[in-house]
Amino acid sequence: MKFAKNRILMGILGLVLVLSACAPAAPPESQPTPDVAAISTQAAMTVEARFIATQQAAQASPTPAPEQPATPTTQAQPTVPPAPSPTADSGGLPCLSASFITDVTVPDGMLVDPGSTFTKTWRVQNNGTCTWDSSYSLVFVSGDQMAAASSYPLTQYVGPDQTADLSIPMTAPSTAGTYYGEWRLQTPWGGTMGFGPYDSPLSVKISTNTKGGFAIASVSYIQVRDPATGCPDKGTRYIITANVTANEAGTIHYHWDQNPEDNEPPEQGQLNFAAAGTKSVTFEWLLKPDAVQDILRWVAFVVDSPQRQEFGRSEFVFSCP
C-alpha cells in the first residue's frame, strides 16, 4: 500500500510542476515567488486524506457472504404402527390370555387300539386382546408325543373372545399302557402360554390294551357347587360325578385321588358292567368357611383293575366372595 501511495504523490507533484510552468509569469515587482514545496505538500496531504477515507469506507462495508444452496425439504414418511407386544393391554386386559373349554375328541383316559391313529381336539378361548394367527403354533412340551409333529401352526384367525378347536393327529403306541402328553401355544415372540388361571398345558391321555378284552374306554366329569355362591356355616359341597364308559361286559375296581389330601383313606369301590355302556359314580368334598381359600383343588377317578387307567381331573378353586 505504501508503494501505491508514493506513486500517487509523485504523479501529483509532476502535475503541479507542469501547471506551474504553464502559468503566465507575473511582473517581478507585483507577484511573489511561489513556494513550490508547500503547494506539493498540501496537495499530497489532500490526496492521502481522500485515499485513507476511501479505504476506511471499503473496510466498513461487509463482504457479502456466498449464497448457500437451499436445503432440500424432507418429505415425512408414513408411520407404520408397531406390532402389539405381549404386555399390551386394552381396558386392563392382557394381550395374551387363554382358557381351556373342553375336550372335543378323545377325552382323557380313552381306550384306543394299539398302533391306531386318532385326532385329539381341544376347544379353547382367546381371552386376551391380541388376535391369534398363523404366527402362533401349538407345540409339544413334555410327556409322550405319540408320533405327532413337534409344532402345528394355527390355520385360522382367533380374535379376542372367540373360541377355536385346535387339533393334532396322533398314533397310539403299540405296547399296552397309559400315555400322556402336554402341549402349549407358542407366541410370535418366542415364548409359550398355557390355559386358564394356572397357565396349564393342553393334555392328551390315552390307554392301550394289547391283550384285548374288557377295559374302560373313557371317563368324563360333571362338577356341581352347592350352594352355587356364598359359604354357609354348614359348609360348601363340591359334587363331582364320573361317567365311566366300558367297551364290553366286565368289572372294575377303582379309587378317587384328591389334592390336597385330607389324611383320610381314598374312597374306593367297584363297578359291574353287564354289557358295553356307561355308569356313574360320585365323589363329594365338603369345605367349611374356615378352609384354606383360593388354592387349586382337584379329584380324579382312577381304575386299579383289571388294568390301571387314569382319566384326568376335575379341578376347582374354593373361595368365599
CATH topology of the largest domain: Immunoglobulin-like
- Please give the domain count: 2
The structure class reads mainly beta
* Backbone CA Rg: 52 Å
| Helix content estimate | 10-25%
Order of secondary-structure elements: HHEEEEEEEEEEEEEEEEEEE
Query: What characterizes the major β-sheet?
Result: 6 strands, mixed
The CATH superfamily name of the largest domain is Immunoglobulins
Termini separation comes to 104 Å
Question: What are its keywords?
Answer:
single chain, about 325 residues, mainly beta, Immunoglobulin-like, 2 domains, six-stranded mixed β-sheet, five-stranded antiparallel β-sheet, 2 helices, 19 strands, flat
Description:
By secondary structure, this protein is mainly beta. The chain has two domains: 94-210, Immunoglobulins (Immunoglobulin-like), CATH 2.60.40.10; 213-321, Immunoglobulin-like, CATH 2.60.40.10. It has helices at residues 2-22, 36-60; strands at residues 89-90, 93-94, 98-103, 110-112, 117-126, 137-143, 151-153, 163-171, 177-186, 192-193, 202-208, 216-226, 236-246, 250-259, 268-273, 277-287, 296-305, 309-310, 314-317. The longest helix has 25 residues, at 36-60.
List the helices and strands and how they pair.
Layout: H1 2-22, H2 36-60, E1 89-90, E2 93-94, E3 98-103, E4 110-112, E5 117-126, E6 137-143, E7 151-153, E8 163-171, E9 177-186, E10 192-193, E11 202-208, E12 216-226, E13 236-246, E14 250-259, E15 268-273, E16 277-287, E17 296-305, E18 309-310, E19 314-317
Parallel strand pairs: 4-11
Antiparallel strand pairs: 1-2, 3-5, 5-8, 6-7, 6-9, 9-10, 9-11, 12-13, 13-16, 14-15, 14-17, 17-18, 17-19
